[in-house]
Specification:
Layout: E1 7-11, H1 16-27, E2 31-36, H2 42-50, E3 56-61, H3 67-81, E4 86-89, H4 105-133, E5 136-140, H5 144-147, H6 153-173, E6 179-185, H7 191-199, H8 203-212, H9 222-234, E7 243-246
Parallel strand pairs: 1-2, 1-4, 2-3, 4-5, 5-6, 6-7
Helix pairs in contact: 1-9, 3-4, 4-6, 7-8
Length: 260
């Protein structure tokens, strides 16, 4: 897939799916501008990507939950690069699992700011350029927005909001030729997954359970998700308002629902 001459923004671009998206888009020839709330090796990644393939990457530190800062970041990309062709809203967080009784209202509000409000801000700010380029928005949601998840009410609620927002925005922006899609990963082996494994009392069992949740018998890779994002940006010219599972079919088939 060729994305030469295009400009893509990737939030949360230093780790996991975001990092892979930076690499995949740059390898397709794009000019990628990515951000993270911490440095986390962002400049090292930008240098490595820029010297490796036909595209290039530029890193800026930005906390997307801070509205003014995120608006400045997106506007700066449009003004500096002269265009925006794709916005990949990847930044987000999954809190530790716990019952609803143990979440506070403030915790939920902060998660909404990061996982939902930031997507609204990014889209609204980038759309003047995306309308000119007939570009694409890709919002990273989650399989659990559709199937639910144990002790994850706040996270699931935010990702459900992302899906609904994606569909509504796709309706509005079709008039301008802007396509808006969601990507819903299942178990993808990211640094967050490794942290969960390391923190568990039985890391080997936790990893094995993660692999066994899919009929394909393994977790996905960040690059498999990133390649779908590139397809949606570069090739999927008649697809909008859709949710795209990258799950290894984890959602299919009956299974034991009651815990022993």
């Amino acid at each position: 897939m060729d994305y030469s001459g295009k400009v893509a923004i990737v939030t949360g671009g230093t780790k996991g799916i975001g990092r892979a998206t930076v690499e995949v888009f740059a390898a397709a020839g794009a000019r990628v501008v990515f951000c993270s709330h911490e440095d986390e090796g962002g400049q090292v990644l930008a240098d490595a990507v820029t010297g490796k393939g036909p595209g290039r990457a530029r890193f800026e530190r930005c906390d997307v939950s801070q509205v003014d800062a995120f608006e400045r970041f997106v506007r700066g990309v449009g003004e500096h690069e002269g265009r925006i062709d794709c916005l990949v809203n990847n930044a987000g967080w999954h809190p530790p699992h716990k019952a609803i009784d143990d979440f506070t209202v403030d915790e939920f509000r902060r998660l909404l700011e990061l996982n939902v409000v930031s997507i609204f801000v990014g889209c609204r700010t980038a759309l003047p350029w995306l309308r000119q380029s007939h570009g694409a928005i890709i919002n990273i949601a989650s399989l659990v927005a559709t199937i639910g998840q144990h002790h994850a009410t706040t996270y699931v609620a935010t990702k459900g909001a992302v899906l609904s927002f994606t569909k509504a925005l796709a309706v509005d922006e079709a008039h301008y030729g802007v396509r808006v899609n969601a990507v819903s990963p299942g178990n993808v082996f990211t640094p967050l997954w490794q942290e969960a494994i390391d923190a568990s009392p039985d890391p080997g069992r936790t990893r094995a359970d993660g692999e066994a949740a899919q009929p394909m018998g393994r977790m996905g890779t960040p690059h498999e998700v990133a390649r779908l994002c590139l397809f949606l940006a570069a090739e999927a010219t008649f697809i909008t308002g859709a949710d795209h599972f990258v799950t290894g079919a984890a959602e299919l088939g009956y299974g034991r629902k009651v815990r022993p």
